[in-house]
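Board notes (copied after class):
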Amino acid sequence: MSIQPTELQNMLAGELYLAYDPALVAARRKARALCRAFNQSTEEQPAERDRLLRELCGRVGSNPEIEPPFFCDYGFNIFLGDRVFMNFDCVLLDCNRITIGDRTLLGPGVHIYAATHPVEPEIRAAGRECAFPVTIGSDVWIGGGSIICPRVEIGDGAVIGAGSVVTRSIPPRCIAVGNPCRVIRELPQP
């Protein structure tokens, strides 16, 4: 007897899945409620903000600083290192794992997309989606308005210029800018 994988298992495996599966819909509703509560909290409620963030995310390191509003799909696929900073209006579509390393800074309006859709219109019409991980190293600075696409890895110490669209992985210790984002300079080794 073979056991069919759940839609959640398919999603996390990078396989086609149905986003309107009742379990996934319930998980997104829970994440939206937690995001709404987080976004309505005030700076005078740091303990409540921390509690909500830790309930929402898969892992939150020490001393996170997330400026509301903040939005995500599920939350449990977000893994934050220590002292991560996200400025206003960041969006993480975490249909697969999104990992952000220690001391990484996200400017305002940064979007990170693990979610994607098949290119074939027949598969999209059937309601199938897919998702792939995104990994951002430690000590990375991502300029405001940048978009990070599925399957991208950004190496430790990299800088992504504002407004960039990152469709391919970026090596450590470099400056990369543009649409599509490309390396324009390597940073010296310490």
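Comment from the instructor: The helical segments are 7-12, 22-40, 46-56, 121-125. The longest strand covers residues 181-186.
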